[in-house]
Amino acid sequence: MAPPRWLVLLLGVIAVIFGVLFFIYPVPTLTLLVTFLGFYWLFNGIVALISLFTDKTGRGWKLLVGILGILAGVLVLTYPLYSAILIPTVFAIIIGVEGLIIGAVYMVQGFSGAGWGTGILGILSIIFGLILIANPLVAAVGLVLLLAGLAIIGGIGPSSLRSGCRGEGGEGSDR
Hints:
Elements: H1 5-24, H2 26-54, H3 59-78, H4 80-114, H5 116-134, H6 136-164
């Protein structure tokens, strides 16, 4: 069942607004989103601790998630500007490490007979992984700008496609 047209349009407009704000005011917009992330982590940690009393399964994991969620949420809310720089930088480093691992796997596959194309992809993946790890702050800024562009494209595309479609209810359907 497809979501209503007005909801797709609203989500598209929100995505475009955030995308434009990321291009015009990248640090304040990122700080706002990181603050929302801090609230999410805080409330998720509280809910995980509360669920210890209602559901007895996985108590150790719930306790760990609860404590880490509350700790991360409080830290992000206490230092939102530092978090706005640190969180994308950590994501860039994680993506770089994943690039190294994937590249190594592709190179092993390439040397094991999967073809020279797989080996080349492995080498490229390792190069991009090393670039991300060597310059994580630059990669974080690039990640923010990439997300801004994707938000604009992702907001315009589905909204324009969905607004041109007619619902199953016929002409004038609000589905």
